[in-house]
Amino acid sequence: MKNILITGGTGFIGSHTCLNFLEEDLNITIIDSLKNSSRNVLKGIKKILELSNKYDENKINFYEGDIRNTDFLRKVFLQAKNKGNPIDGVIHFAGLKAVGESVLNPIIYWDVNVNGSINLFKIMEENNCKTILFSSSATVYGNSQKIPFNESASIKPFNTYGFTKAAVENILNNMFDSDSLKWRIGILRYFNPIGSHPSGLIGENPNHKPENIFPYICQVASGLREKLYIFGNDWPTPDGTCYRDYIHVVDLAEVHKIALKYLFARDSANLTLNVGKGKPYSVLELVNTFERVNSLKIEHEFSFRRDGDIATSYADTSKMYNLLKWKPSKSLEDMCKDGWNWQNNLVSIKD
Ligand code: NAD
Ligand code: UD1
After folding, report:
1. Among candidate residues 235, 204, 238, 213, the one with its CA nearest the CA of residue 290
2. Are 274 and 322 in contact (CB under 8 A)?
3. How many CB atoms lie within 10 A of CB 197?
4. Hey, what domains does the chain have and what are their CATH numbers?
5. 314 an active-site residue?
6. Atom 20 (ligand 2) nearest CA
7. Residue list, ligand 1 pocket, CB within 6 Å
8. ∠ CA 325-320-136 to the nearest 5 degrees?
9. pLDDT score for 350
10. Burial class (CB within 10 angstroms; exposed 0-12, middle 13-18, buried 19+) of 54
């Protein structure tokens, strides 16, 4: 049975991926500094698995620690080996992701996102662990010309967060070029992951004011924020608001399992894939859908355009479909329903 190391495994996307792997009866080892998550996430995962009689505590190991700490990483790999279950592959989610904060605090973003990743790759190499999936972002395309973005579009990030993601992609490509047989690499460029597990037991829980639209809408719906400010209604789009490619986080978790299988089936690989639905929706369509499926109102007001936004961003998903033979199945309605279910549950837990 393979043992997969999941860095950032208690975070938003990581937790859904951990659940997906445990449901498949895989062993996982999670490391997370808990900078943007908490141990309660592990309780949520456990509860969901218990509901389907799939919880097995021997299949999950959790280590609290920082990917910038080489000794810590070395110990995690060694302990797995000593238990007779060495790390076979890594999914690397751990990192910082707030664009605004990255521009204000570039050093910490380069340190965590780039130095942390280099550390991890070093320890993987020491342990002959050659398989890695890296969480990159559509943000690496920046203002790059042609929409929908395909994977060969030029890489033109324009904020610190985007620069750090592009830098790690470069490092991985250099590693592969230096000795292709030594690595099986998958770079996944996520578009806009939203929603949560339908149980409402795990989901996104930002520890700061959300910059992204979906957690902001959820917080307006629950009364934590007064209204949503829609950044511009004069974009060159059919309704004047920006179009984005939203993907349900449960679908996103699933693609990690499929991409990892793809890598394990090969001696060597270097794969870069867009991960989105390939269908854009406007901000107003998102808000209207959220209101309709959850029978509530989202107070909103139009405000100025946000620096760095582009009118339309969505993925050309043909490469993902052709190589992995997989498509996301959940709808915008599912994303809005499940995301609200989680937020509603969070509020009642706090009450
Ligand atoms: P998240 O913040 O919920 O999860 C990241 C996890 O990493 C958190 O649990 C955090 O505590 C942990 N972490 C942070 N710094 C760490 C460190 N130094 N050592 C160990 N753990 C650390 O974010 P997410 O939305 O789940 O995103 C996961 C990955 O996907 C990130 O790399 C992010 O950049 C990337 N990504 C996210 C989105 C998105 O919209 N959510 C889009 C594109 C790419
Ligand atoms: C943002 C980041 C991008 C990151 C992605 C996923 C910027 C410039 N880009 O992209 O690097 O990879 O999130 O994490 O921050 N909106 C509002 N009001 C709000 C929040 C957002 O109207 O309060 C609008 C935005 O203008 C945008 C859309 O909603 O048109 C989606 O915004 P967001 O969720 O931040 O995602 P991206 O802009 O795609």
Report:
1. 213
2. no
3. 22
4. 3-349 (3.40.50.720)
5. no
6. 213
7. 8, 10-14, 32-37, 66-68, 93-97, 112, 116, 135, 137, 190, 193, 212
8. 140
9. 47
10. middle
